[in-house]
Design a protein that fits this description.
With 106 residues, the protein is an all-alpha fold. It is built from five helices and no strands. Helices cover 55% and strands 0% of the residues. The protein is globular, with a radius of gyration of 15 Å. It starts with 7 loop residues before the first helix and ends with a helix.
Length: 106
């Protein structure tokens, strides 16, 4: 969901039947949060979801509208592909945990 922060309270107070979800660990490429983990812009989050769901071309097309967009895929390619290969959410969490453990030991 994307909206102006001016209207955020009104939008989030709507009685929607939303199922909460979160994206796994990824690094932002947007100019405001470049290199920061989990600080994705809306377009990065959408592209990540598309890529993980197997819609890589659509993710790339969406990101191509931004000068920095394709850099998001480049920064996260290994993780995005690994998440996409997971059979279920447990597999995604396993990939994420293994990655985070790996960077902790480096």
């Amino acid at each position: 969901m994307d909206c102006s922060w001016v209207h955020a309270k009104q939008v989030f107070e709507m009685h929607l039947q939303l199922v909460p979800r979160c994206l796994p660990y990824l690094v932002a490429a947007n100019p405001v949060n470049y290199g920061k983990p989990t600080k994705l812009s809306t377009v990065e989050a959408l592209a990540a979801a598309l890529h993980i769901a197997g819609y890589c071309d659509q993710a790339t097309q969406l990101l191509s509208k931004f000068k920095w967009g394709i850099q998001f895929i480049n920064l996260n390619k290994e993780l995005l592909d690994a998440y996409a290969q997971a059979k279920d959410s447990k597999g995604v969490v396993k990939v994420q945990t293994e990655y985070l453990n790996q960077i902790d030991t480096e």
